[in-house]
Amino acid sequence: MCLIELKQSNKPMISCSVNAKTTLLPNTEIYTNSPLVKKARENVLEFLLLNHPLDCPICDQAGECDLQDQSLFFGFTRKRFYNYKKIVIDKNIGPIIKTVMTRCIHCTRCIRFATEIAGVQDLGAFGRSFSTEIGTYISKTFQSEISGNVIDLCPVGALTSKFYPFINRSWELKFINSIDFSDGFGLGIILQIKNKKIIKIHSNFNINKTEWISNKTRFSFDGLFPSDYSLNTEELNNIWFGLFKKLIKLFYFYDHLSRHNLKLKPLFLIFGSTLNNESINLLFFISKRYKFIKLRRNMLVNSSLDLEQYFKFNDLMTSVNFNKSKFCFLIGVNPRYEGFYLNVKMRQRQLKGKFEIFSMNSTIDLTYQVKTLSTNPKFLKIISEGNHILSQYFITSKPSLVLNQRISNRIDSNFFFKSMLIIETYSKLKKNTWNGFNLLSSSLNTVGINILNVFSGFSNKDFLNSTGLFFFNSSLNEISNLNKMLNLKLLNYLAIQVEYFIIKLGCCSKKLLLSKISEYLYLPSSNFFENSGTFISTEGITKISTKILVTNLEKKNDWEILRILLSNSKSLKLLHSTSKLLFLDWNLNRLRNYIIFLAYASQGISNLSFFFNKKCQIIKNRLFKFDICKVNIFNTKLKRFIYDFYLANESYYSRFSFIMIQSSNVLRFEKINFESIFIG
């Protein structure tokens, strides 16, 4: 369809393959809508429709089919071929992609995507002439975390979604823009909605930038909508009313006793990394108002870095900076499962050449060439001391380093970050406008939580000293050793008195054996698309999600719950009540001192401000050398934090998705232990 006519040529030519420097002669005229071009396009379209079935009324691609558009402009109603059409057997290439190979026109878009973008050599064309087919040649699945994008790339209905076939047409659906809820980058997506329900999710295609989405983003939305509720609307409303009444009484009496200096076990509010910034601010206000309320994250964080440049992606994601960088060092990170968007960018950069990637992790397949060095943390100490040949790469122009956010959960996490500071001092990792230190987080609002405050993680000690637990956008599986502690409690091995054990989630399994605990409630809340909020992605970009779906009557969002608690607590006549909230946090004082320090240093640089003086640069280096000796180093090897892309992640929605569970079973069946063994 991209044929053109040259004035001095005897036949039409393909416009995308014409070289303007060598093929075109001076004063050559080009015709794009001549009779010869129109006739050639009609012949090409007639050849494409030669074996294509005439099943447009039942095809899933109807309304979005490129072949229909081309047939409207360049086709004709006559037919010259009355033989039997070609029949091709459908292939089973995975649990999410449905194949109808009789509709295939051999455009090879899926093959080029699998080879060039996904980096998986599974799809190909075999056979010649009339026997040409697209498939995997042998019986296997197209195993890639971004394989669902071929559904959008296929111009006809040959590759469609397996779970939603023959249901809706494009003109019956509403298209609404939103952001990705299952990844730290928060990429743009398009929702297809009908009757207040999400039917499909596909990527946001732009002219200048194509944002590929993962299979989790495309198909895990069925986990956001649990289908079975054991309680009706009236019963749930009564439970909500009783819960608010009980919590308000609890706040009143606990606040009264705490003001009389009585030691009380606190009530812990535990939130996940996907909670929006507005709800976290309200939780922060509640924890500051009442002394007996403690705010905790669902994961342990041992690092105390407060500067924004040390817990986000800085200067690596743009195409300009990727072209400038010639070296990348991965420490304990698996970008294929933890940040697929970064993995695609790194593969495209390596295909251009002059880009070396080293990894300090277990052996993993990242779809491109990576040199794995070691899994021992002591190897990083050797690099920071300059006793390894890899240290020379950091003094090259624009080096880059990617660290996993989960490393902050380790006990020796300070060793990793202080080693980065030493490397940053002696190398060009951070010079002038370039900052090559990048921290990859796999959750949507991890950076936003770190910007707000340094929250402590929920530990076993907190569980033993708690009077109740309240979960916000989190689950029991995300907290280490909590299930083990609950089982010991059920076996009467631990004497734990938990008066209120409340779990509030959008989707959660209610069948838990918690009969030994005095009270356990599951209350359905609104999911990601039934709520609006602000998030900060791993790149530090503010992402805003709007309310798209109408919340059911029995559901309440996090903002509504916290506002009800705050409004009702104001009506209570507490002792020494005041309308002011006092914030005496050490982070605020530290930030104020840091700002004053920068202000004085900018007025006049003296010998005292040695951080800004080149003459006293040796003193700064000695300080970093002295600090590294104080840090403990453990021999625990670095390992992959995510073994299963579809289920093992901070986004708990995928764990309740039937499609993700089925995809995980296929992945675990094919990924056996012998895959990591290689010879050479």
UniProtKB/TrEMBL annotation:
Domain 4Fe-4S Mo/W bis-MGD-type: 173-228
Protein name: NADH dehydrogenase subunit 11
One GO cellular component term: membrane
PANTHER family: NADH-UBIQUINONE OXIDOREDUCTASE 75 KDA SUBUNIT, MITOCHONDRIAL (PTHR43105:SF13), RESPIRATORY NITRATE REDUCTASE (PTHR43105)
Cofactor(s) of this protein: [4Fe-4S] cluster; [2Fe-2S] cluster
PROSITE patterns recorded: 4FE4S_HC3, 4FE4S_MOW_BIS_MGD, COMPLEX1_75K_3
4Fe-4S His(Cys)3-ligated-type domain residues: 36-75
Classification via Gene3D superfamilies: 3.10.20.740, 3.30.70.20
Keywords on record: 4Fe-4S, Iron, Iron-sulfur, Metal-binding, Mitochondrion, NAD, Translocase
Keyword Cell inner membrane: no
Family: Belongs to the complex I 75 kDa subunit family.
Any one of the GO BP annotations: ATP synthesis coupled electron transport
A molecular function (GO) term: 4 iron, 4 sulfur cluster binding
